């Protein structure tokens, strides 16, 4: 999809930009810098689109964040579902945590977790942003509940599926914080492995 980039300057004329490419660059900036530290000028420079044109197209920084977070959420939940779709519950959980840790430790420096980074940003305090963040965590919890309800998980879970799902989601948020402090992916994997052992009876 292409969106017209109309400058306020009569010298600039009219040009078009690739919206998909622009939003991917916007997502990368928010993920790297965080919501509060990102300015509209940062987004203009990252996309190569004039700041006024971004306002015209999207309505401001919060609207742009919500647009790219929706993309991020869909991608994250699809990847989480793929990781969990294994025939054995222990493998499914191990692969899920591996995916989660790999996502937050990507980059130099590592990019962390967009959801948690935004949730702890006092400048990202609007009801709309909170609702968007909550929808991702609720979606993740639902995926885990569905996976824990499958036949191969029966008899192995130490907790009811709903409680186990909430514990795993909460653990993913704690892992994010530990990654920010220690930056040690191997330690994160060891912690996740310990939780899997606590959650499951031996086969």
Structure explained in plain terms:
With 203 residues, the chain is mainly α. It has two domains: 1-59, Orthogonal Bundle (Arc Repressor Mutant, subunit A); 68-203, Tetracycline Repressor, domain 2 (Orthogonal Bundle), CATH 1.10.357.10. 67% of the residues lie in helices and 5% in strands. Strands 1-2 form a two-stranded antiparallel ribbon. Strand 1 and strand 2 (14-18) form a beta hairpin. Helix 5 packs parallel to helix 8, helix 7 (127-148) crosses helix 8 and helix 8 (161-182) packs antiparallel against helix 9 (185-199). The chain is elongated. The model is unreliable at 1-15 (pLDDT under 50).
CATH level-four homologous superfamily name of the largest domain: Tetracycline Repressor, domain 2
Our count of domains comes out at 2
Q: What Rg do the Cα atoms give?
A: 20 Å
CATH names the topology of the largest domain as Tetracycline Repressor, domain 2
Question: CATH first level of the largest domain: which class?
Answer: Mainly Alpha
Helix share bin: 55-70%
Mean pLDDT: 90
Q: Note the run of SSEs as H and E.
A: EEHHHHHHHHH
The total of helices stands at 9
> What class do helices, strands and sheet pairing give?
mainly alpha
Strands, count:
2
What is the CATH-assigned architecture of the largest domain?
Orthogonal Bundle
> Ranges with pLDDT <50 over ≥5 residues?
1-15
Largest sheet: 2 strands, antiparallel
């Amino acid at each position: 999809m292409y969106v017209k980039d109309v400058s306020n300057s009569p010298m600039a004329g009219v040009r078009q930009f690739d919206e998909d490419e622009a939003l991917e660059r916007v997502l990368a900036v928010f993920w790297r810098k965080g919501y509060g530290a990102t300015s509209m000028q940062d987004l203009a420079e990252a996309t190569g689109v004039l700041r006024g044109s971004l306002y015209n197209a999207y309505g401001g920084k919060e609207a742009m964040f919500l647009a790219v977070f929706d993309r991020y959420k869909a991608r994250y939940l699809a990847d989480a579902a793929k990781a969990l779709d294994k025939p054995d519950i222990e493998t499914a959980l191990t692969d899920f945590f591996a995916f989660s840790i790999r996502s937050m430790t990507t980059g130099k420096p590592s990019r962390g977790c967009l959801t948690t980074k935004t949730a702890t940003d006092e400048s990202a305090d609007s009801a709309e942003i909170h609702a968007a963040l909550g929808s991702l965590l609720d979606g993740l919890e639902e995926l885990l509940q569905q996976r824990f309800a499958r036949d191969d998980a029966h008899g192995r879970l130490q907790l009811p599926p709903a409680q186990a799902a909430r514990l795993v989601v909460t653990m993913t948020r704690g892992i994010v914080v530990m990654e920010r402090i220690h930056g040690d992916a191997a330690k994160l994997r060891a912690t996740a492995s310990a939780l899997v052992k606590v959650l499951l009876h031996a086969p």
